[in-house]
Amino acid sequence: MKKSKNRLLIKRICFVLSIILMFSLVFTGCGVETETEEKIGTKLSLEGTACLAGDTISIPVSLSNNSGIWGAQIFISYDTSVFSFVSCSNGEVFEMCDSNTDDKGVCILTSQLGVEDTTKNGLVVTVKLKAKDTAEDGEYKITIDEKTNFSNIAGDLKEVAFEGCTVTVK
């Protein structure tokens, strides 16, 4: 009879502890995190398009979930046998931009003019490329090179995720 009472007591204790554990997980937020609850970090993305050989195209470069950035050095790579750089125009996120080209693509320098970070989201720059007359039909990747970096006014590097795009020449 004593063993039976002990088993019953142990079962009740286990039941009560499981209820307490369940409530503590619910009320402290230590449950399973869903995808919609995950925090999305700062992201720089390119928007693809389609064109014909000889066309000039615009590639919007956008920033989302901006955590506070003063300036950036953005390296955009593309097949220079298919595309040539035309121009770069400033968007609404930063106050200025400049660009330099090399044999792999373009380097864009963009920043605030003042001494405060911006938390704006949206269009950083628009890059114009010309599909060469000799461009063959196909899909071509435009990528953001890993040398790309962002910093705040204090000079701290900021983590930013990159998303390239595809341009289809028809």
What does this protein structure show overall?
By secondary structure, the protein is an alpha+beta fold. The chain has two domains: 2-37; 43-169, Sandwich (Immunoglobulin-like), CATH 2.60.40. It is 16% helix and 44% strand. The protein is built from one helix and 13 strands; from the N terminus they run αβββββββββββββ. The strands form two sheets. Strands 2, 4, 6, 7, 9, 10, 11 and 13 form an eight-stranded mixed beta sheet that branches. The protein has a five-stranded mixed beta sheet with strand order 5-8-3-1-12, with no helix packed on it. Residues 14-38 have low confidence and may be disordered.
User: What's the helix-strand series?
Assistant: HEEEEEEEEEEEEE
The CATH architecture of the largest domain is Sandwich
Class from secondary-structure proportions: alpha+beta
User: On the 0-100 scale, what is the average pLDDT?
Assistant: 85
